UniProtKB/TrEMBL annotation:
A single GO molecular function term of this UniProt record: ribokinase activity
Protein's recorded name: Ribokinase
One protein family per Pfam: PfkB
Domain Carbohydrate kinase PfkB: 1-284
Organism ancestry: Bacteria, Pseudomonadati, Pseudomonadota, Gammaproteobacteria, Enterobacterales
Species, as recorded: Serratia fonticola
KW Magnesium (keyword) present: yes
Amino acid sequence: MSKIVVAGSLHYDIMLQAPHRPEKGETVIGSSCAYKFGGKGGNQAVSAAKAGAQVSFVGAVGADDPGRFLLAVLKENQVDTRHVEITSATPSGMSVAIMDAEGDYGAVVVSNANNLIAPHQLDQASLWQDTGMLLLQNEVPEAINLVAAQQAKNHGALVCLNAAPARELSTQLQACIDLLVVNAVEARDLSGIAVNDLHQACMAAEVLSTSFKAVVVTAGEHGVAFCEAGSSSQSLPALKVELVSTHGAGDCFMGMLCASLLQGQTLPQAVAKANQAAATHVSHPTR
């Protein structure tokens, strides 16, 4: 089975460049502003498509200019949009991100239409035909993630959850997950282990692998750790690159990881390819 279904968020991103992110009550004079395609779901779908996967997207946008822009970008990247709902009830999702002089960023997300993804969008047989993997994130309600995961399991597809942002997961959803991917903060919140280096990332991955079949912990400049249930953890150091921007690096990692797994590569092989893709991504300006 050769297709990835991504169910998740689409955001119209406003990107601001500033010398630093504002403190409480502070006004900062920025240097540039850009309008971009975003949402973890959308970014990961495009990344997987660029990595060679056939991708279908399940989501929702408003009947507005941002929504038309988001759909156009998906189509330009050969992502199937037949299962994206267009609603007049609320605007498209959006986010505002501030990038500082070091290339790090913080963002505020407003979900809007992403909260209106409906279960009926996930029960169409055509969506699951030839699907080998479902990719989820935590930017849409868990109720939608659960319906999607249950449908995927019913159709014999693997389920990958990028648990970002971190939130408590129901036992029903946990039971459906074949691969959990988290960053250092999310790993800490779910495992109780602070992740400040690669050794701690390995520890967190091993703890989480007692609840999930396979776990990947991305630890930024330290590298990435991964563990399959019943096995010892493994790790890869971060590749040395000149950092330009971290924005979208995690989504780039996810797309390459899932595409590689679907192409038959082992977890260590897929993690290595995703690690390389993310390193290349952060060494170039945000697109």
